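Teaching soon. Got one?

===
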Amino acid sequence: MGFQLGNIIEKREHGVLHGIQREIACECWFTSSGRSIPKIIKVMDDDGLLHTIRDIELFTTEEKTYCGIRTIEHLCRIRLRGRTGLVKLIYTKESCRWTIIDLS
């Protein structure tokens, strides 16, 4: 005989986040259903120059958990300094911070 108390919520753990993370500022639009869509990001390069990126092509959005920390990952294509690249924009729910990982 088996029984269950309450609801069990399945959380898939994704391990450790790979890649070099760089902190960014992000202006994000939220739909009426709560879906987030990044509109503008600001990132500082290695020389200390601040770049504003408005050309963001969003491919996918996924909620993930890394080492118990919940995130929202946006896979995007951006254009910076005349170069197009694939990046992950990651919003960490716990700290309310944005980071970027260059995938190209």
Strands lie at 21-30, 36-44, 50-53, 56-66, 69-80, 83-92, 97-102. The longest strand covers residues 69-80. The mean pLDDT is 86.
